Amino acid sequence: MAGWIKLHRKLKNSLVFDNPDLLKVWIWCLLKATHDDYIQMIGLQEVELEKGQFIFGRKVAANELKMSESKTYRLIKKLETMQNLNIKANNKYSIITIANWELYQFDENKNEQQFEQQMNNKRTTNEQQMNTNKNIKNNKNNKNNNNIYSESLIKKIMSYPGKKTKDTRDKKLPQLIKKYGEEQIIRCIERYSEEVKGREKRYILNESTFWNGRYVDYLDDNYEHDNVEEDINKPQKTGYKGYEL
């Protein structure tokens, strides 16, 4: 294509600029794109191209870029996932469209202020959408977490004497509540808390360890209360038969 293209200074602050190969392919795409509506012949087929589009063939692109075909295609697809361009393919060829072509390659009668305003509007819209998606996700997660436990169980969980591990708890507890019932789970926490009362912190199970299996001996059918006074200054026996911390 004859003529020239414009590169905005903001390019140097982009993720594309951080990768030399990606930058090379991106500039190549800009150079390949037509600056006006154009009809290109593919064999005997006339293909109408709009501004900012070009016909893409993996072999030709690899040859011009002096890269392997697989690497060329990976970089093109990466630019697509970054929303710099989009690819419309059929069984004969692909048409690549540069995103916001006229926004970057603006006409001479558009001044820099207009360009900046368009970019700012686009950025604001994207940021608002990202914030909206983030809020929806957070609200959904909060709603799900709030529905997992009752208020009484939450209070009992907060009183667990060992180190808290929320991720493991939220993964394991819903299944255990469904299997054993919430009241029995509360009793497990109470029994273990009573058993380790006064014990040094280093000899108290982390919550992740407790919910990953050590809770079993504190279930109604398994628990055997031990009234033997224990030395709290050394590793002590738990409600588990045959286990020591």
**Quick one: biggest sheet?**
3 strands, antiparallel
The string of secondary-structure elements, in order, is: HEEEHHEEHHHHHH
Number of domains: 2
What is the CATH homology-level superfamily of the largest domain? Winged helix-like DNA-binding domain superfamily/Winged helix DNA-binding domain
Q: Give the second-level CATH assignment, the architecture of the largest domain.
A: Orthogonal Bundle
Principal-axes shape call: elongated
Count of DSSP strands: 5
Cα distance spanning the termini? 75 Å
Write up this protein:
The chain folds into two domains: 98 residues, Winged helix-like DNA-binding domain superfamily/Winged helix DNA-binding domain (Arc Repressor Mutant, subunit A), CATH 1.10.10; 96 residues, no CATH class. The strands form two sheets. It has a three-stranded antiparallel sheet with strand order 3-5-4. The chain is built from nine helices and five strands; from the N terminus they run αβββααββαααααα. The C terminus is likely disordered. A hairpin with a 2-residue loop joins strand 1 and strand 2. The protein has 245 residues and is mainly α. It is elongated, with a radius of gyration of 32 Å. It is 48% helix and 10% strand.
